[in-house]
Each structure stands twice: as C-alpha cells, then as structure tokens.
C-alpha cells in the first residue's frame, strides 16, 4: 500500500504546514539542539517538518517508504531513506550517532507491529533524546464523531494508557502530553528513556489516565454510543442532500481525501447525488472516488461551475477552507461540514446547525 502515489503532500496544506512548524518549535524549546545532533522524522512525507529546524549543522534524516515521490522537495541537507523505519535502516545512514530528536506524526497507528517499532525507537534514541509521537486520540475521536479516521491504513486506535504501557515495556516513559484539533483531534506524546534527564509532568499524565477511566474505554458502552451518533448523522445528512438535490441544487465535494472516502462509502453518497469532487492535487484530476465513482476535478473548475453546496470531506480544516473560499461563500454558495455535527456555512460566516 505504501508505494508511489500513496498519501498527500503535507506542504500543500497551510494548516498542516503551520502545525508541523509548531512541533519543531516545541522541540526547540525542550531540547537544546547543537551542531551535529541528529533529527529523525519517521513518515517524513515531503520534508515539511524537517525543513522547520533552522539551526545550523544539524544532521536531518527522513525515513518514509513513500518518500521517493516527494524527493524533489528534500533539500541537500536532509537525507531521505525511502524505506520503512527500523534500527537497521537508521544505522545504515547514521552508524555513529543516535538521534537527539525523533518525530513520528500521524503514522504510529499504521503499524502492524507497534511494539517492534517502539523497541527500534529505543535502540536509535540518544540517551538524552526525545521521541514525539502524534496521532488521533481515541477519546477525542469518540467525542468528535470522527468515524472517518477508521480507514484501511489505520490499524489501531490509542488512548494514553496503551502508549504508556508500551513505553514502560521498553524502559521508556512519558514526559508530557498535549492535545490539538489536527485530524479531528490528536494527542502529542513526548517520551524519553526511563532514566533520561527530563522531568515527567506526572500530575497531568495521571489526570489524563483518570479521565480515560471515567470514559469506560475498556467497556462496550462508549462505542455503542459512538455508533448510534454516527448512524443518526448519516440519516440526517443523506436526507438533507436528497431534499436539496430534488430542488435542483448542485452539490460538489470539496477535498477528495482518504478519510472522506470512508464517509462517502458508509453514507452511500455517490455520483447520483454529487456532481464532482474538487481537489488541489493535479494527480487526482480525471480520476474517480473509489466505490462512489464521483469524478475528481480541480478546485478552479469546480468554482467555475458555481455549485449550490460544497460538501467538505476534510472537515477538520474548516477555518482554512472558509478563508480560502470567501468569494464562493460571498456569491451565495454554501459549505456543508458533516462532522462532528452537521454545520452549513453561508455568506458572512452564518452557521446553520442541525440538532
């Protein structure tokens, strides 16, 4: 699966680029980087994150099995390893040093063997190094109705308790945890070797454990409630689209994303309802959405068609899209955001929320 044409390029999205820059800044506050230190990004995509480190003399390495398709975006000071991460692949390009900083953003839940991955992290992490892993957070996923996170590449869904367990099994520990809105709600975990120099924010960590326990994540209850909410949202959105279509309104997709295809197929929203899907990536133009056969066109072509509605599949980039499409909204067009609740936004940022 992780071959040429997989995934999207981080640098094309302003929100994601800014978010990755914030990760680099948080690293720079926590770690005093020095010339010769190794920075490793696992799942480095187009090197957007690695390019955010502005210190001179850093040794920057990106490991990504899909990285070759983005190699043109890697400057000379970043070494790209187009392969899967393991300790052997790391030491093949950096045999004499361990990494002072390791980042793995939105990829840890893709792993078939997460424990082996953590074992290899421990092997390549400097004694005073930190590992930052960020991904969708189970509790937020349930709260935000982010069922579209459940797609073919995401094999696991974590709360902090599971991350803590895996780290302890490998003589590592959590330093701190932060939450953000990326990808429908994510958590960023800072980790280190068990006996490293960093002080753990234990009070905060324990509070998160307590909150997770209250949610009863080890029982069926929260998942049954999650299922019920998703089925209700599906019925509401499909009924709305059907009524608007019967009125002669034109409905387009905004953002032919991977997660969006989960929603389209589960909701059975296909080319009988949607005219076309607009996307920024030229490689998608002329293709169709899998399973629902909606033709994919450029954003410019979609704007010229002046649709009544854009159904926004990458809904978590809401603020960016509202700014980008201000002219569309001002001309009378509307955005439909399907999650975490159905919100329709029109001119002057007016909100219409389904209840």
From TrEMBL:
Kinase found in the keyword field? no
What residue intervals traverse the membrane?
Answer: none
**Which Gene3D superfamilies does the entry mention?**
NAD(P)-binding Rossmann-like Domain (3.40.50.720), Vaccinia Virus protein VP39 (3.40.50.150)
Under Pfam families, the record lists:
Methyltransf_14, Methyltransf_23
Q: Name one GO molecular function term.
A: methyltransferase activity
Q: Does the keyword Transferase apply?
A: yes
Ranges for domain C-methyltransferase: 182-340
Query: Which biological processes are named by the entry's GO terms?
Result: methylation
UniProt KW keywords? Methyltransferase, Transferase
Name assigned to this protein: NDP-hexose 3-C-methyltransferase TylCIII
| Organism the protein comes from | groundwater metagenome
Q: What is the lineage of its organism?
A: unclassified sequences, metagenomes, ecological metagenomes
